[in-house]
Amino acid sequence: MNNDYTYTIKDVEDTANVVKATVTNPLSGYEFADVDDICSSVITCIFDTVQNVQDTSIEFVARVAMNAIESVCAFVRASKGGANKWKAPKSLPPFAISEILEHTGESKVLLDDVKHPVLLIYNQYTGIWDMIESENDATIYNIISKCNKSLNSKQRMEVVTALKARLQFNKATIAHPTRTARYEAYNNCVWDYEEQKTIDFDTARSMGLLFTQKAAMTDYNEDADMSPIWVDEVNNRIMTVDEIVEEWLDNDEEKIEAFWIGCHAMTRPHCQGFQKSIVLVDTKKAGKNGKSQAGEMIASVIGTGNYSGATISDLNDAKNGGFNMQDLTHVSAIISTDAKEDDYIEDSKLFKQLATHDNIKVNQKYKEPITFRPYVQTWFTYNGFPRFRDDGDAISRRLYLIDFNKRFTATANPEIRAFLTSKEVSEYVLNKLVHMDIRAFKEFDFQKALLGEFKAETNPIARFMDYITDSANRLDEEEHWDMYDFDFLYALYQDWYRNDNSGKDKGLVGRNGFQDGVRIWAGSNMNGWRVTAKKNEKVGLQTIQASKAYLEHHEIFIRDFRYERYSMLDKYINFAYSEKQVHNRYMGNDRKVRIRGVYKLTQDLIEEDKKQFDAYRESLREGSDDDE
């Protein structure tokens, strides 16, 4: 409908008279059991018989409806009697407003979760469908007010509830948002990536395209194909946008390409090939390398109000209200240019859901929860790497890392921020990005190396195991055990972790999580160390010959790692206690050790006991079930 439609009182009265004449005509088929039937009949008649009604406004339809309802009620009272029964309402009731909104064709319902349908209202000024979270949202509030300004919050909620109920049982009004790689909505148009052309919003709607958000609030400008020039008077130079990016990345061609791919991904939230989080890191933790400016540039393209500035750690606190997930219904990106050092993320569930566009449920205080699928791209900057409690591959698979390690020595010019966030630069960048022929992230060798550094620095269990098994740290093997019980190993790890984190336990995993981490480490490392198999598991080596060194001296790492304040290693310092425990728990008559932990497989063992060892292992596979 046309919200800018102008009309006169005579227009309303004339249209209402036509509607009254139609509704009260015995041949029209309208029947009334009560005033509610009159309201519904009048509204249906308006949209069935009034010519070009879709070109008018909601306000006009509401006034015609109210005028016609009063006239029809008066007619019925005169013909049937019963003044109280056929008394016209003073204003349009909530159910009648919901019927008007249904007939306009500008409301739909989103059923990402059938238990919690989400109302969508078409916004003719933006060309997208606004997601309605409550009766007080500006879009629905303004529409309802045009029909009846006197409704309170409870009555507006009745309108929303009735409208959703009507829409979700009509196939034609169930929303099917456009979530394909071919189309994205930008500020002034829809871009067709296959045809490489623009589509205006009216045409896009007639094609059945439906967007609940814009990928960027920057206009596509076909003439913005030449970079604006920045005059750096402080350093006596002129630079294009591309030259600035090249300087940030020290003219490394792979990093430059990866950077523009990351920028492209930020403007393609509906392309399934871009389901990763772009993370700019400074592995040297030196700063002054341009990564914050890069984030501000892409934030300007996405547009103020169209992105959230939350950090990864803000997402970590989402369950406790640290991050308002309702913001995600109105944005296409999360962009954080506030570089932090070694941020710790306890709960990475929301981070992973956003990266892969999974459904999330948002609980609203005093309101119904909403469930929707946020198509939100994420961009973070860090000094060092963010640290996750979840240290498995599920995190590393969702990261698109680019390192900014060049430290600028030129005199800082604060004017560069104004240049990079200007309208001209944003339009140039968007023009450049939409013409990139790419549908998925491209992986580069430098990123593989970065992921290796990320895993080494952010996976404390792997770092711990790498250290205690590294031959460089075991120069005198007589001072070290060649097998470690999980109980002892976890006690050793706890003290190592506290020493590595200034005595803090934050991020310290429990014993079961530690065992799982050690098994993952052993599965990805071929360094001569193995982990015994779990109960009934037919993989791994489950028996080893007892090491004499294991019984005759203390593990020297106890001395190196023991944390003075509350160490669990103290019981392992007492030699007699340690030997007794080892013998009672693990030793058999044939001096074969049944150990749940980590052991080093030596060449001597393989050569001397291979046949006996293999036979013993087979017997365990066939009948033993008394391991863990």
What key attributes describe this structure?
alpha/beta; 22 strands; 628 residues; 24 helices
Give a written overview of the molecule.
It is a single chain. The chain is of the alpha/beta class. The strands form 8 sheets. The protein has a 5-stranded parallel β-sheet. It has a 3-stranded antiparallel β-sheet with strand order 1-2-3. The radius of gyration is 34 Å and the shape is elongated.
Quick summary:
By secondary structure, the protein is α/β, with parallel strands linked by helices. The longest helix is centred in the N-terminal third of the chain and has 23 residues, at 58-80.
Radius of gyration, in angstroms, nearest whole number: 34 Å
Q: Give a short account of the largest sheet.
A: 5 strands, parallel
What would the average pLDDT be, to the nearest integer?
82
Structural class: alpha/beta
Strand content: 5-15%
For the termini, the CA-CA separation is 69 Å
Topology (SSEs and partners):
Layout: H1 9-24, H2 35-49, H3 58-80, H4 94-103, E1 107-110, E2 118-123, E3 128-132, H5 138-147, H6 153-167, E4 183-185, E5 190-192, E6 197-199, H7 201-206, E7 229-232, E8 237-240, H8 241-248, H9 253-266, E9 277-282, H10 291-302, E10 307-308, H11 312-316, E11 333-341, E12 344-345, H12 349-355, E13 360-362, E14 370-372, E15 377-383, E16 387-388, H13 393-396, E17 399-403, H14 415-420, H15 423-434, H16 445-458, H17 460-469, E18 483-485, H18 486-500, H19 511-523, E19 529-531, E20 544-545, H20 548-552, H21 557-561, H22 570-573, H23 575-586, E21 592-593, E22 597-600, H24 603-623
Parallel strand pairs: 9-15, 9-17, 10-11, 11-15, 12-16
Antiparallel strand pairs: 1-2, 2-3, 4-5, 5-6, 7-8, 13-14, 18-22, 19-22, 20-21
Helix pairs in contact: 1-2, 1-3, 2-3, 2-4, 4-6, 10-15
